[in-house]
Write a structure and sequence with these properties.
single chain; alpha+beta; 15% helix; 4-stranded antiparallel beta sheet
Length: 151
């Protein structure tokens, strides 16, 4: 070994499958298990539908992503309405501030949602009916009034 070289000794420790602590550690405690801080509760069917409808009407998702949730005339309305992106806002992504549902009879949910995008607040309402295959579908969608700039 020359004068410019240094000797490095590496010590290896015998770790078995049962030991996970470093050999010098005598403390039996373990780090706390990390628990997700933002655990999202499962969404109700009308809340899930409102989020999907908002994504389509704001231009974030394509219209065909609603094929399984809308039937008949509702899908046709959506095909004509979606290209105009009535819920799109400039420089912000619209979010659902509130979504509530009412059950007027078994298998039916009438719901409304408040949508916020920047300083704009809008609302949408829809009706979901349970089909024989136990899925919920929108039979019709209300057509929102056209957006008026400055209003």
């Amino acid at each position: 070994m020359s004068d410019t070289e240094t000797s490095r000794t590496h010590t290896t420790y015998d770790r078995t499958a049962a030991t996970t602590r470093p050999p010098a550690r005598r403390d039996p405690r373990r780090p706390a298990r990390v628990i997700s801080q933002r655990r999202r509760p499962s969404l109700q069917p009308h809340e899930r539908f409102a989020e999907q409808l908002l994504a389509v009407l704001s231009g974030l998702r394509p219209v065909h992503s609603m094929l399984g949730q809308t039937i008949g005339e509702a899908y046709d309305q959506l095909v004509h309405l979606a290209p105009t992106t009535p819920l799109r806002a400039r420089n912000t992504t619209p979010v659902i501030r509130t979504c509530r549902g009412f059950h007027p009879c078994p298998g039916v949910v009438e719901a409304w949602a408040v949508i916020a995008a920047g300083n704009q607040v809008r609302a949408m309402a829809f009706r979901l009916e349970q089909s024989p295959d136990l899925d919920r579908h929108a039979p019709a969608l209300p057509t929102p009034p056209p957006h008026q700039p400055g209003a």
